[in-house]
């Protein structure tokens, strides 16, 4: 016959083990439950933060301003004044990087106007929630390129808004059928833009070039900036180191230092090299984004009538240092024929004379 004490001890140990196992199970269950609460709370907080970020992004693209006069912009009356705003961050947090640029679908300007409802008359914009770091005038020499302009407006306005620029778009249209003068039109754009606003940065852009990356910011730098670094026309390579054509930027100070651009290049070619010579003679160097960020596409087209190669360009380029002090913004003459204020741009038609 078994000893009763042995049976009792065995039963006691078994019960103790069961109790310990139950306690362990309860402890594990409680820990898991508490952690799941923390996870759910963290998830909710993350969702709320994402919602707030999304809301801020929408505010950047839905804010509106109104013109104070034909020459200045001001914010709508609100509880937040400009003096209370901070400067916009650099780089802008709204940038998305590489872009898909295609020209196989026609562009409707009415749709472009609707999409860019934040724009003010004359193609003017500035961010609502911060103070732009620069006031940028975008100057486009122009004649008979309406289809190209549609693509430019379609792609560039959203890019420029994401870059958080205080900007205006100026289409400088050469009147008449005389030989085209790109550089002189750029000088006109500089002069006319400053009549409207105190711009401190100027982008000089051909109408047929579209950037493929919004990190290629259309602003000014400590040195003159060549923005259209790698064009599809040249196999996404820089054709030569001195090349300064397509799209470039200069601050007001840099522009005045070289007396602006030459006025005597009639027809295609030469003015970009003249500008490069001017910059070099004043001790400035060309800055550029990387070949990846500086990619851009060109709207294919045949050369315009009255824009044949300039037979005098090589001779003029060789005498840049001799002529730059007398040929430039200080000798600019033209006549304004018409000014059109569109939602997407300011178009200024001018008579620049003839060769």
Order of helices and strands: HEEHEEHEHEEEEEHHEHHEE
* Proportion of residues in helical segments: 25-40%
Instruction: Specify the structural class.
Output: alpha/beta
* Main sheet specs: 8 strands, mixed
Tally of individual helices: 8
Distance between the termini: 131 Å
In total, the number of strands is 13
Unreliable stretches (pLDDT < 50, length at least 5) are: 36-80
Report the radius of gyration as a whole number of Å.
31 Å
Q: Describe the global form.
A: elongated
- The pLDDT mean sits at 85
Kindly estimate the percentage of residues that lie in beta strands according to DSSP. Answer: 15-25%
Explain what this protein looks like in three dimensions.
By secondary structure, the chain is an alpha/beta fold. It is 34% helix and 17% strand. It contains 8 helices and 13 strands. The strands form 3 sheets. Strands 3, 4, 5, 6, 8, 10, 12 and 13 form an 8-stranded mixed β-sheet that branches. The relative contact order is 0.13.
Key structural traits:
8-stranded mixed β-sheet; 8 helices; 355 residues; alpha/beta; 3-stranded mixed β-sheet
What layout of secondary structure does this protein have?
Layout (H helix, E strand, L loop, with lengths): L3 H59 L2 E3 L5 E3 L33 H7 L8 E2 L9 E8 L3 H17 L3 E9 L7 H13 L6 E5 L3 E3 L13 E2 L3 E2 L15 E5 H6 L13 H11 L13 E4 L14 H5 L2 H4 L11 E7 L4 E6 L4
Parallel strand pairs: 4-5, 4-6, 5-13, 9-11
Antiparallel strand pairs: 1-2, 3-5, 6-10, 7-11, 8-10, 12-13
Brief write-up:
The chain contains 8 helices and 13 strands. The protein is α/β, with parallel strands linked by helices and 355 residues long.
């Amino acid at each position: 016959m078994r000893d009763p004490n042995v049976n009792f001890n065995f039963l006691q140990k078994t019960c103790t083990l069961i109790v310990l196992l139950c306690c362990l199970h309860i402890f594990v269950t409680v820990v898991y439950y508490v952690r799941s609460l923390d996870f759910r709370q963290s998830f909710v907080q993350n969702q709320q933060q994402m919602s707030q970020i999304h809301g801020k992004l929408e505010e950047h693209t839905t804010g509106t301003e109104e013109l104070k006069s034909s020459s200045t912009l001001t914010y709508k009356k609100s509880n937040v004044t400009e003096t209370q705003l901070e400067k916009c961050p650099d780089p802008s947090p709204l940038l998305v990087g590489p872009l898909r640029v295609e020209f196989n679908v026609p562009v409707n300007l009415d749709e472009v106007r609707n999409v860019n409802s934040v724009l003010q008359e004359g193609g003017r914009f500035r961010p609502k929630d911060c103070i732009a770091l620069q006031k940028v005038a975008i100057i486009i020499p122009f004649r008979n390129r309406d289809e190209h302009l549609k693509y430019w407006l379609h792609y560039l306005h959203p890019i420029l808004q994401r870059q958080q620029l205080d900007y205006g778009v100026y289409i400088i249209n050469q009147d008449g059928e005389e030989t085209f003068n790109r550089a002189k039109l750029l000088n006109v754009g500089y002069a006319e833009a400053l009549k409207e606003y105190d711009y401190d940065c100027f982008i000089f852009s051909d109408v047929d070039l579209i950037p493929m990356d919004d990190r290629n910011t259309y602003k000014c730098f400590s040195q003159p900036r060549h923005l259209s670094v790698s064009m599809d026309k040249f196999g996404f390579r820089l054709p030569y180191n001195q090349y300064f054509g397509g799209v470039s930027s200069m601050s007001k100070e840099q522009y005045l230092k070289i007396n602006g651009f030459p006025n005597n290049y009639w027809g295609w070619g030469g003015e970009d090299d003249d500008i490069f010579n001017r910059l070099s003679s004043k001790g400035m160097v060309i800055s550029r984004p990387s070949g990846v960020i500086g990619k851009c596409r060109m709207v294919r087209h045949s050369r315009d009538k009255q824009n044949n190669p300039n037979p005098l360009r090589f001779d003029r380029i060789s005498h840049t240092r001799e002529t730059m002090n007398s040929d430039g913004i200080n000798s600019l003459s033209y006549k304004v024929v018409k000014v059109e204020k569109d939602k997407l741009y300011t178009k200024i038609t001018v008579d620049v004379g003839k060769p």
